[in-house]
Amino acid sequence: MDTTDPDIRFDKFGVCNHCHRYDSLLKKRVFTGAEARMKLDGIVKRIKLVGKGEKYDSIIGVSGGVDSSYVAYLAKKLGLRPLAVHFDNGWNSELAVSNIEKVLDKLGIDLYTKVIDWPTFRDLQMAFLKASTPDGEIPTDHAINAFLFQEANKRRIKYIISGMNFATESMAVPAWSYGHSDMKYIRAIHRRFGSIKLKGYPGFSFVNLFWWTVFKRIKVVSLLNYTDYNKEEAMDVLQKELGWFYYGGKHYESVYTRFFQGYVLPIKYNIDKRKGHLSDLIRSGQITRQAAMDILAKPIYEEKLLKQDKEFVLKKLDLSNEDFNALMTLPNRTYQDYPNSAKAVKVIKLIVNWLREKGIYSK
Ligand SMILES: [Zn+2]
Fold this sequence. Notes:
The chain has 363 residues and is of the alpha/beta class. The chain has 15 helices and 5 strands.
């Protein structure tokens, strides 16, 4: 990591705040050996007990990527009866769709896909591009979370099984991406730059979140934190046992994500998200620092793929080359330039962490 995160702080030994945060939270969030097995066993028993008599005892959001595919595999292996849900924002790569189908088919897990109205979603994505903040993936990230809770609530499912895992994706850099739980910010951007109504967009407020977690007792469970999760090994299992196929970089199951992280973020904002992902892998001992530096030295995008993706993205967003270049040269802004709930998010994170420690919000 380097100072492309403007908020990074180094101590007198040159150790950054992200590493300190990782070290202090790792013991609380990630378990290994006998302790992990015991805790995982307890969680699985609880999910089965609470979901007894219901068609599904848990819900899993799937993207076709490594983490969500592997957690589906693990859930099934543990004897759970999950429903898989997928949020289709119109940008799935063909490979992602075929991965989802193959994996769930082999595992015998039902799938429910929500397809969002494309003109609405396009309008929201365009609004974020016009707002000129690096948060262009927030409309998707927020909607996935909302959709998971909404479906769980509707179907009386009490456990959301998440493929999030602290060991390989702990890092949060607000200056690189902000707004996952901030509907006020999303609305503000849309009000100012959008042109049609935001109908059918699955957003959530803090009141919704409070209602779902505290009153409806819907919990988010990160099963991978109770296994010695290793990405390489996970990919190996998925490829050998389920016919899953690797698609390249992290979150590249979506063409828009690939283009946004591979082109818009580095070119316009000087943000290379690989630094965050690789830092996590270094800290969790899954890659050496040197190997990570070697990866960083290579270009993010292969030229041919970039050309192909750019054409596809511009066409789908109905943007001319000139329009796109105009967006790319707008002065950069941040969420702080728009109405937002950042202060409330800070307080809520503290509360959620407290609930997490009490076992109310998540495991
Ligand atoms: Zn560090």
